[in-house]
Amino acid sequence: MRVARGEQKDAALLHAAELLRRETGPLLEANRADVEEAARRATDRIGRDRLLLDRARIEQMAAGLEAIARLPDPVGRLVASSTRPNGLKVERVRVPLGVVGVIYENRPNVTSDAAGLCLKSGNVAFLRGSSSAARSNAALAGLLAEAALEAGLPRDAVLLVADGSRQSAEEFVKLEGTIDCLIPRGGPGLVAMVREQAKVPYVIDGAGNCHVYVHEAADEKMAEAIVLDAKVSRPGVCNAAESLLIDEAIAASFLPRVAASLANAGVELVGDERSRALWPSMAEATSQDFATEFLTLKMAVAVVDDLEGAIAHIAAYSSGHSEAIVTNDLRASERFVAAVDAAALLVNASTRFIDGGELGLGAEVGISTQKLHARGPMGLEELTCVKYVVHGEGQVRN
Fold first, then answer.
1. Integer Cα distance of 139 and 151 in angstroms
2. Residues 119 and 90 in one domain
3. 216: DSSP letter
4. Could you tell me if residue 382 is inside a domain?
5. Distance between CA atoms of 379 and 211, rounded to whole angstroms?
6. What are phi and psi of 319, to 5 degrees?
């Protein structure tokens, strides 16, 4: 895979997209069995939504693979070059990580996204999905492996662990010498297991306790639309907003307006004392509520004194994923962007845009909330590292 030609990798991706469309029927049949099993296990609505495939989602996966194929190949790209006084030419070039292990829960689309990004970046995709999506993952991985083989790549460029047991998960994260980089995508339990037991380097796809802060200089109509999209469009994903912060200066006019819209959309609101004074039907929020990634139609609300109060609140409770400000004050937005410590900051836009496809990466293998190696949506470049290549003309070091 390290020396695969760019045209081979692109051909594999395009053929995989073609196979997804051609085999939509069998994919939906496999997924239907997984969803029915989840219903028998009394999996909640959000969990079933994450698991569900339909024609639109399969088309999104196919389109994502095609988008990855159109992106420049990162492998071999020159990062920096310089010439030393002794004539040595020093280069840094991008190379694949090697074997990328992805351990994930529920979402079958991760199978397609992770495999596509690994193929394009010259890595082996070593996948371990959950038992809840076993049939869907097996069907998707089989098509991706078939496409790789058809393009002249190793069939084992895409590998799926069939065993969905906890024991297999614990063994997977200990494959030192086999896995070069591990990326977990799942809930707190999975992440905790990786932190405690992994023996290979990992990049954490962290929790998304995301905030939308409505500044006193916000356009209230714009702010309402952004808050609704960030919370309601797909509440069970990591880029959904979990907390709403509103400047005291506009709280009396804006909070009842947005609270009514959120309530009409089925969102359960909990709030601090100042929020509840303006919307009495709201239950009292605890500190734990403000620290929680709900992943459902629930939102914590706080009224803050000003911009600095919002920054302080986010610093206390954020998971470092994505934070948004709504304002028409350029200086306030610049202060927010500079002061808030998160992988992604948004000005006058929904947190739902922090997604590899939406940001032009084709797809993502995860969204890192760490600060070493990769941060934010992990696309092709984040699945590579660099190596030094030094060209000389007989120089020796005496």
1. 19
2. yes
3. T
4. yes
5. 24
6. -90, 0
- Count structural domains, the chain: 2
Residue 95 forms beta bridges with which residues?
A: 385
Could you tell me the pTM of the whole model? 0.87
Report how far residue 157's alpha carbon sits from residue 264's, in angstroms, rounded to the nearest whole number. 48
Tokens of 102: 């992805």
Q: What is the pLDDT of residue 137?
A: 97
- 63 in any annotated domain: yes
pLDDT tens string 277-323: 999 999 999 999 999 999 999 999 999 999 999 999 999 999 999 99
Q: For the purposes of burial, counting CB atoms within 10 Å of the CB of 359, is it exposed (0-12), middle (13-18) or buried (19 or more)?
A: middle
C-alpha span between 382 and 160 (Å, rounded): 22
How confident is the model at residue 371, as a pLDDT? 84
Query: Contact 210/325 with Cβ under 8 angstroms?
Result: no
Burial of 281 (0-12, 13-18, 19+ CB in 10 A): exposed
Both 172 and 30 in a single domain?
A: yes
CATH number for the domain spanning 138: value is 3.40.605.10
8 Å CB contact between 108 and 140:
yes
Question: What radius of gyration, in Å, describes the C-alpha atoms of the chain?
Answer: 23
Clarify whether residues 138 and 18 are in a common domain: yes
- With a cut of 70, list the residues of the chain below it in pLDDT: none
pLDDT at 182: 96
Are residues 61 and 97 located together in one domain of the fold?
yes
**What residues are paired with 183 via a beta bridge?**
102
Give the domain extent around 62: 6-205+378-391
